[in-house]
Amino acid sequence: MQVSIMRDQIKALMACGISTEKIAMIFDMSTSELYDRFGKEIATAEDEANASVAHSLYKMATSGKHPQASIFWLKSRAGWDDKSDIQINIDHNTPREEIIKRIKELESSSRVH
């Protein structure tokens, strides 16, 4: 088997989370031989795979076509959350009309931001 093909296969297996012990078995070599011959691929495969997925997610999030990707990106990378800090101070004596007025004010102010 060509070395370049083996490198690509080892990187793909590592990126998928297959252990070095199992990869060595697949290619019929010892773990130490695997590390000696393909140490760079073993060391970099996971980071390269994560970078590739992050790039795909970034393209999806910025395309405007995948709002779920945008929301995920903002939550995981920009610190957004679903919690609301809005509080309405009312008591049992607050008239219904006043409560509705406060809610409408909050709704209109949240649209502006």
Description:
This protein is mainly alpha-helical. The protein folds into two domains: 3-82, no CATH class; 86-113. It is built from five helices and no strands. The protein has helices at residues 3-15, 20-26, 31-63, 67-77, 96-112. Helix 2 crosses helix 3 and helix 3 crosses helix 4. The mean pLDDT is 87.
Would you summarize the structure shown here?
The chain has helices spanning 3-15, 20-26, 31-63, 67-77, 96-112. It is mainly alpha-helical and 113 residues long.
Topology, element by element:
Layout: H1 3-15, H2 20-26, H3 31-63, H4 67-77, H5 96-112
Strand content: under 5%
Rg over C-alpha atoms, rounded to the nearest angstrom: 26 Å
Low-confidence stretches: none
| Number of structurally distinct domains | 2
| Straight-line N-to-C gap | 60 Å
Number of strands: 0
The DSSP helix count reads 5
Structural class: mainly alpha
Biggest beta-sheet profile: none
Order of helices and strands: HHHHH
The percent range for helix content is over 70%
Integer average pLDDT:
87
Shape: rod-shaped
